[in-house]
Write a structure and sequence with these properties.
- The protein is α+β, with helices and mostly antiparallel strands.
- It has one domain: Nucleoside Triphosphate Pyrophosphohydrolase, CATH 3.90.79.10.
- Helices cover 27% and strands 28% of the residues.
- It contains 4 helices and 8 strands.
- Strands 1, 2, 3, 4, 5, 6, 7 and 8 form an 8-stranded mixed sheet that branches.
- A hairpin with a 4-residue loop joins strand 1 and strand 2.
- The longest helix is centred in the N-terminal third of the chain and has 17 residues.
- The two termini are 28 Å apart.
Length: 176
């Protein structure tokens, strides 16, 4: 649980979500398997600090613009590792680094409801979010044709996203 230690939630709702994740870790240990009703995901908002832009990815399943991230692979037990791997896979960027750095820092944790689909029941993601920076914004590559990537000013991006990503963008604005 070392990845969660020291993180200080910034709202009452986030405090409740972090407490719930900590309890799940103590009670069940395995919060990584997609088969559990609540599982941890690692996500990131990719930023280009010199231009103050953020990268959004079209999420076909949900029909929304989203940040990047996803589920743990079988051997992963650290949301930072998951977030970085997923960001590289989904953006094609290879120069991603923690922002503002030098070490990765959790920016936001939120439990997000996920509706049933593709053989999965309703479940929840305990989404652990980081900021990643790139020096090569033009090097992005769509993961597939249904996963368009767009660089946007933060305020424009905020008008295109759901409640969860909007909250993450608000945290990013304070850091950028």
């Amino acid at each position: 649980m070392s990845w969660l230690e020291g993180y200080v939630p910034k709202s009452e709702a986030e405090h409740a979500d972090v407490a719930r994740v900590a309890l799940e870790l103590l009670d069940h240990g395995d919060v990584w398997a997609r088969s559990t009703p609540l599982h941890v995901t690692g996500s990131a908002l990719v930023v280009h600090p010199p231009t103050q832009r953020v990268l959004l990815r079209w999420h076909e399943r949900y029909g929304i613009w989203n940040h990047v991230g996803g589920h743990a692979d079988d051997d992963e037990r650290d949301p930072w590792v998951i977030a970085l791997r997923e960001a590289q896979e989904e953006t094609g960027l290879r120069d991603l680094r923690p922002f503002p750095g030098p070490e990765p820092a959790i920016v936001f944790i939120e439990i997000v409801p996920v509706p049933a689909a593709r053989g999965e029941a309703n479940h929840e993601h305990a989404d652990v979010n980081y900021l990643l920076a790139t020096d090569s914004p033009d090097a992005i590559a769509d993961e597939h044709e249904d996963a368009e990537l767009r660089w946007l000013p933060l305020d424009v991006a905020r008008t295109m996203v759901n409640f969860h990503v909007a909250a993450l963008l608000d945290r990013a604005k304070d850091i950028l």
